[in-house]
Amino acid sequence: MPRQDTSGRAYDLVLYGATGFTGALTAAYLASHVPQGCRWALAGRSTAKLEQLRDRLAQSAPSCAELPLLRADSGDPGSLRELAADTRVLVTTVGPYLVHGEPLVAACAAAGTDYVDLCGEAEFIDRMYVRHEATARASGARLVHASGFDSVPYDLGVRYTVGLLPEGVPIRVDGFVRTNAGFSGGTLSSALTAASRPVAMARAARERQRVEPRPVGRTVRAPFGPPVRSGETRTWGVPLPTLDPQIVARSAAALDRYGPDFRYRHYAGVRRLPIAVGGALGAGAVCALAQVPSARRWLSGRLEPGDGPSPERRARSWFKVRFVASGGGTRLITEVSGGDPGYDETAKMLAESALSLAFDDLPETAGQVTTAVAMGDALTSRLQEAGIRFGVVQE
Fold this sequence. Notes:
It is a single chain. The protein is an alpha/beta fold. It contains 16 helices and 15 strands. Strands 7, 8, 9, 10, 11, 12, 13 and 15 form an eight-stranded mixed β-sheet that branches. A seven-stranded parallel β-sheet has the order 3-2-1-4-5-6-14, sandwiched between helices. The longest helix has 18 residues, at 122-139. The model is unreliable at 183-187 (pLDDT under 50).
């Protein structure tokens, strides 16, 4: 099946789920950053809500007054197939992806449409690989999950770091993330859904391992180890059971530049040991409560989908990820940093990922690919121009 020609489609980019909390932030970012001549549209279930969003966008970006609005619903696969067939790149913020995501992935894979999401749900991503990787490879579609704070800073940060180390040598990288940010109802819902399904998550991972090719003559690892004390970052490292190490490992498996023997470990960097211990215990308690349906509903009700931090709270938020790396006798520390990670910077990362797929000169890839593999330096440059900092730390 040849790669499908998408150049004659009605739109360069469509944002699906535009009226949600993160979707509206992404729409606002696109409104002020799409290049001249970009053909883009907003999509969602409610035309009335889409019209309200378009009116708000037009107040600061008058050209948005005539922005096309497309009605589509995750419960109506036919509407999603039409959506995918009309655009070159489809961006979605509609989660939890385990509940709402697969019909759109299937539609994009079949139509040869590039797909970008914010998914941090390992089970969903593994299932999409097993079910739709072959179709996407055949059609030429690039399926790029985890294109927000999960997992762009880590994926591109490690790629940036590896590029500063000698080639052809074993490489070790430890990532330490710190932030003061809040989160939204949609994020809480997705996290609780994922935490409530440990057995299903493990089963999906095994199914993927059975069919996914492994690098030949190279070793790639992302172990989940014990807490560590990092003298370089002056923090306690609490292991994070997030998707990010898996994404980094998949980039390393796909790119020879990561060396013959690559290892990545992923931590929350915490200044004081009691806080580290308390955070680990608290996360464990939430995961335990997520197994009980009534407790999960109670936790989910603390924040409704569509709710999120205020603009004032987001303005005070920040993130820093430090990478302590070594290889070939070279040791260095790099850092990726920016503002509010969960929303303002996530909207930026998602939007720039979509714009990169739509307009940048990128390597020929297809199927389920990471941001480091699909966009690499092009996306890093975009994010640097947009204010996210990549650099070497001078100790």
